Amino acid sequence: MIFTQPVLYEFDRIQAPTLLMIGQKDNTAIGKDAAPPELKKKLGDYPRLGKEVARRFPRATLVEFPELGHAPQIQDPVQFHQALLKGLLR
Questions:
Q1: What residues in the chain have per-residue pLDDT under 70?
Q2: The whole model's pTM is what?
Q3: Which one of 3, 32, 45, 60 has the fewest CB atoms closer than 10 angstroms to its CB?
Q4: Do residues 57 and 12 lie in contact, with contact meaning Cβ atoms separated by under 8 Å?
Q5: What span, in angstroms and rounded, lies between the C-alpha atoms of 85 and 57?
Q6: Helices (H), the chain
Q7: What pLDDT does 1 receive?
């Protein structure tokens, strides 16, 4: 789906409250290894991308984990679950 659907442009249609939980040290990006050098620098920039995506959802809450990467739920399950429960209570 990520390669065939323009889902980024449909986020504004999602009316449900949305909890985005992002590790700021994540730099994962599909196709990054094959991207040209100038584009590669922009891919996987989650401190920037998280904020940009959160603005696209009408009812988003962004939770950023400054010291965690791609799998915050595994890297620090206590911190992750605390943030998840707090977000679900909103």
A1: 1-6
A2: 0.83
A3: 3
A4: yes
A5: 20
A6: 37-40, 46-56, 72-75, 77-89
A7: 47
